[in-house]
Design goal:
Largest sheet: 9 strands, antiparallel
Radius of gyration: 20 Å
Mean pLDDT: 83
Shape: globular
Order of helices and strands: HHEHEEEHHEHEEEEEEHE
Number of strands: 12
Structural class: alpha+beta
Low-confidence stretches: 21-40
Helix content: 25-40%
Length: about 280
C-alpha cells in the first residue's frame, strides 16, 4: 500500500511539472502567438467534473453503491492471504478454477491485432504463465503489443458472460468490486465503506450480471465513451447465490474464476477465450 501511495504522489508531481512547463511555453510565446503542438493539461477542477460525469454514467447504468457489506462476509472469511495461491484471489471452496488469459493486442492502434498466448510463450515460460505475468515475454512480440492488466478486457466480456450467466440462479443480483486505487476511476475516493481484503480495498456496487460491461474510467472532454483499451471494469464480481467468483487482479495479465466444474468447463470450451484449469 505504501508503494502504491508513493507511485501516486510521484505521478501527481510529474503532472505538476508538465503543467508548469506548458504554462512556461505559453507565456514565452504570448508575444508571437501560441506555440504549436502544445498539449493543454486538464486542471484539477476539470478532472473532478469529468469524474463526476463518469460517476453519473455508472449510476445511470443501474449500479447501486453497497453500504451494507455483509454481502461480502463470505469473501472476507475465505480470502485470508495475498498472492499465495488461487485461494488468495477467489474463495478456495469451489469445485474448479480457471485462469483466463487476457488477449495480447496493440490496443490503441488501428486496426487492432490480437495474438494468443500459446503463439507467443515458449514452453520454458510455464512458471511465468502460471502466474499470468507477461513481462518476461515482451521481446517476443512486436512493439506495442501487451495484454491488459487489472481489468477484464472488453473483447472477452461477452464470452465470459455466455459461460457465467447460465451458472447462476441470481443473474439479476450481482456484486462488483472496483479497486480503490485507480487514478482514473470515476468512483469518489471518499466513498465509504469499502470491502477490505488482504492488500486490496474495493468499492462495492450492486446490479445485474450485465453491469460487468460498465466502464469505471473517466472520459476525456468531447467523449461519451472510452476506447476499449481505456475501459476499466470491476475487478472482483460475484452473484448473490455465490455460484462463482471472478477476479481480475490489478497486477496480473489475466483473470481467475472459481465455480462449479460445469461452469469452468464452459469457460474452457469457448473458442473466444484462452483459458486453462488451475
Amino acid at each position: 500500500m505504501i508503494r502504491q501511495w508513493l507511485a501516486y504522489f510521484r505521478m501527481r508531481a510529474q503532472i505538476r511539472r508538465m503543467q508548469r512547463e506548458f504554462e512556461r511555453k505559453v507565456a514565452n510565446a504570448s508575444a508571437g502567438g501560441a506555440p504549436k503542438h502544445v498539449t493543454r493539461f486538464l486542471t484539477e477542477d476539470e478532472t473532478d467534473v469529468l469524474r463526476e460525469d463518469g460517476f453519473e454514467r455508472v449510476r445511470a447504468a443501474g449500479l447501486v453503491h453497497v453500504t451494507n457489506l455483509s454481502v461480502c462476509d463470505w469473501l472476507v472469511k475465505s480470502i485470508t492471504t495475498f498472492a499465495k495461491d488461487v485461494s488468495s484471489y477467489v474463495p478456495g471452496h469451489f469445485d474448479a478454477f480457471a485462469k483466463v488469459y487476457h488477449p495480447i493486442s496493440n490496443h490503441d492502434v488501428e486496426p487492432v491485432r490480437t495474438l494468443r498466448w500459446q503463439e507467443v510463450v515458449p514452453d520454458q515460460g510455464e512458471r511465468a504463465v502460471q502466474r499470468m505475468w507477461f513481462d518476461p515475454f515482451k521481446d517476443l512480440v512486436p512493439d506495442g503489443f501487451e495484454p491488459r492488466r487489472g481489468t477484464l478486457p472488453f473483447e472477452i466480456i461477452e464470452p465470459m458472460l455466455a459461460a457465467l450467466r447460465p451458472a447462476t440462479t441470481t443473474p439479476d443480483e450481482c456484486y462488483f468490486g472496483v479497486w480503490e486505487g485507480f487514478g482514473g476511476s470515476v468512483v469518489p475516493q471518499s466513498l465509504q465503506p469499502r470491502l477490505q481484503l488482504p492488500a486490496r480495498g474495493y468499492h462495492v456496487f450492486r446490479g445485474t450480471i450485465d453491469e460487468i460491461r460498465v466502464d469505471f474510467n473517466f472520459c476525456f472532454p468531447g467523449q461519451t465513451s472510452n476506447k476499449p483499451w481505456r475501459r476499466q471494469s470491476a475487478n472482483i464480481w460475484w452473484p448473490a447465490d455465490h455460484a462463482w467468483c471472478v477476479l481480475s487482479e490489478i497486477d496480473l495479465h489475466g483473470t481467475y474464476v472459481g465455480g462449479s466444474k460445469a461452469c469452468i468447463d464452459a469457460l474452457l470450451a469457448s473458442s473466444e477465450l484462452e483459458a486453462t484449469y488451475v
